[in-house]
Amino acid sequence: MNRIKAYLDLIRYPLFAIPIVATLPGALIASEGHFTRRVAVALVIALCGYFAGMIKNDYFHHETDTHTNPERPLPSQRLTPRQAIVPASIIYGLCVIGGFWLNVKAGLLVMGLVAISHLYNAIFKAKGILGSLTLPLGIGLLSVFGALAVSGTVPRLVWYAFAATTLYDLGTHITTTFKDISRDKELGIVTTPIQIGTRPALLLSGVATVLAFAIAFLPYWLEPDIHKFYIVWVILGMIATVGTRISLYLQPNEKNGYLALKGSMIGSILFFPCLIGALVPMTVSAAVIVPLLFVTLFLLRTTRQEV
Question: How far from 235 is each of 160, 227, 240, CA to CA, in Å?
Fold first, then answer.
């Protein structure tokens, strides 16, 4: 049981909703709103790949975690590095096999996503703006993967989801690095605010976030045959995001950075899957989004796990 608990800590399971909501738009848009077996397989692959990335993150940074997060499974020696890297690599391999089982395009994209995850964890995470660009690209491409997994093609509406998700996650990645900024400076870890400065980083984050919401609004005017009520999820995402980032822009410190992180998590669950509401009724999209949001909040409160 202790080893199982260690693995659960390693994958940061309270964040399970992020790969799901990032993949759902592509999968459900490509399936025209129907929850098919291919949609389910795409979600499982995305979720497993995301968890494998979390494991690899701790593997590559377990020496730094000895100083910053000594309670994590690897620095606390509840698991050895080998016990982390082997299952993560196996999971990645199974994800690639699953992608090719769906179709060649999906398999190739899974290989690309694995490469992005590896580059981020092994190299780019501590390289400032490169890290802030790499991880959001992988999250955004999950919607494209969802579409390819279901139909082998990428409908136009999915490209809106890809662009909006990537830009939103870029803004999120930058703001959330503020929660550990003092610790990162002491350890020589280069994040975007440390590399380019606090105010330029906040400006870049703000521009990316505004563009993300602007792109999400575009189908409302440019796509005639969609449900317009999807815009409610965009607005709720804006409220959650802006409401929790104002304090960070007024006082850029670690406390406000963590508040921005919490707001961005809520905003992501509301915003990433917003375009599924363009094809399905509001009640259906709510039946998907609301439970994911409440389960995530419950897990974060009860586990008190650092994210």
Answer: 16, 15, 9
pTM flag (> 0.90):
yes
Tens digits of residue pLDDT in 260-283: 988 999 999 999 999 999 999 999
CA distance linking residue 237 with residue 263, whole number of Å: 9
Nearest to 29 by CA among 167, 225, 191, 248: 225
| Residue 300 burial (CB count, 10 A) | 15
pLDDT confidence bin for 183, thresholds 50/70/90: confident
CB distance 302 to 246 below 8 Å: no
Residue pair 285/276 in contact (Cβ under 8 Å)? The answer is yes
Per-domain residue ranges for the chain? 2-303
- What's the pLDDT at 306? 59
Q: Which residue(s) pair with 190 in the sheet?
A: 127
